[in-house]
Structures are given as structure tokens and as C-alpha cells.
Specification:
about 210 residues; alpha/beta; 4-stranded parallel sheet; 3-stranded antiparallel sheet; about 50% helix; disordered C terminus
């Protein structure tokens, strides 16, 4: 019997009509644990596009960032370990896809930021800014509301912790690496196997 995964038309990624990334020759594939659009054939379609458009790629993994979504159920130490295991499983599962990168690339796992010497002060400053600035607090609150609407079991305070930590680490990353951040609306992925092709927005330039 023929394997349908071997005969299915390739999933294609294309960049939307934006120009503000084109002066950058490096990109970051920002990987969220459990996001199916960043796995398997979907990931391969993004890698093909990255090979065409960029000279260097960072595979920026939010693996142990995911511990915030696991802490209430597992406790902080076990949540960190479980999130780390999720990241290792993603790397093993997508090793063949990553091997398709034809440009220099670097894998950065989230613990890199948690142990970065500048992270504690920046994280504390991000929390202070959240507590003192109503506009920033509203922006974070809007994202938390969107996430908890899709995931009613989520703890809103854990979601805030997640976002503030992400903002601090992303600030460090962007200070060191001027890159196109690829995650949710710069590129469409299309599945031609559907009767009516549907495009999924899966990247964004941050």
C-alpha cells in the first residue's frame, strides 16, 4: 500500500505582501511546543522558504517557557523537566526537517535565557513595567484574554508570567540578533490536498 505522506503534494509557504523584513539576512524560527504548524511537513515548508530567503537561521525554542502552562498540575520543578522533555522530543521528531536547512543555523533552547546573566534584571524590570504602566498591562491582558478564551482551564496569572518572561527573553535575543522573527502572520502555508485550498497564517515579523 502506498504511503499517502510520500505521495501528497508538498505544503507550500509563501511570504505575504510586506517589505519591512527584506533588509534582514537572518531569521528566527520561533518554536512553540504543541503548535502543529511547526512540526513535520509544515516545518519542512517553512524551512524551504527560509533556505530561499535568508543566509542564517536561529531555531528559537520556547520549550521550558511552556512550564508556566504545566506548573499548576505538576509543580514548578516537574513542570520544568516536563517542558524540557517536550523540547527534546520536538528536536528528535523534527531532526530530518532541520537537516534540510541549507544555511548555517543555531538552535537556542529556552534555558539559555533563564541562565543568561542579564535575564534576572531585565525580567524584574519587565514585571515592574507591567505593574506600573496601564497601557502595557492592557496589552498583556488582551493576549491573556485571547488565550484563556481558547483554553478555559488556563490560569490567567500563569499566562501573565509566561508573557513577561517571553518579553524579557525576546528583548535579550533581539538585542543580540537583528533578525526577522518568524511566527504568525508574515507567511501563509497552504495545503493543496484540500478540495478548496486554505492558507494558514503561521509566521509573523515581530
Amino acid at each position: 500500500m502506498t504511503n499517502p505522506l510520500l505521495t501528497a503534494p508538498p505544503i507550500r509557504a509563501k511570504i505575504k505582501n510586506r517589505q519591512d523584513w527584506q533588509h534582514l539576512d537572518s531569521c528566527s524560527l520561533d518554536i512553540s511546543m504543541g503548535n502543529k504548524w511547526q512540526d513535520g511537513r509544515y516545518l519542512e515548508s517553512q524551512i524551504r522558504l527560509v533556505n530561499q530567503r535568508f543566509k542564517k537561521c536561529f531555531v528559537h525554542m520556547g520549550d521550558t517557557l511552556q512550564r508556566h502552562n504545566l506548573t499548576d498540575r505538576l509543580g514548578s520543578e516537574d513542570a520544568h523537566q516536563a517542558a524540557r522533555i517536550m523540547g527534546s522530543a520536538w528536536l528528535a521528531r523534527n531532526a530530518d526537517a532541520l537537516d534540510q536547512l541549507e544555511i548555517p543555523y543555531e538552535i537556542i533552547r529556552w534555558d539559555h535565557w533563564l541562565t543568561h546573566p542579564e535575564f534576572p534584571a531585565l525580567h524584574a524590570a519587565m514585571r515592574e513595567y507591567y505593574d506600573s504602566n496601564i497601557f502595557f498591562r492592557k496589552i498583556v491582558g488582551r493576549d491573556v484574554a485571547l488565550f484563556t478564551a481558547r483554553n478555559p482551564e488556563a490560569n490567567p496569572s500563569r499566562c501573565v508570567d509566561y508573557l513577561l518572561e517571553e518579553a524579557a527573553a525576546d528583548t535579550l535575543f533581539c538585542r543580540q540578533n537583528p533578525v526577522a522573527r518568524l511566527y504568525l502572520s508574515l507567511i501563509h502555508i497552504s495545503e493543496p490536498t484540500r478540495r478548496t485550498p486554505i492558507s494558514y497564517a503561521v509566521f509573523c515579523l515581530k
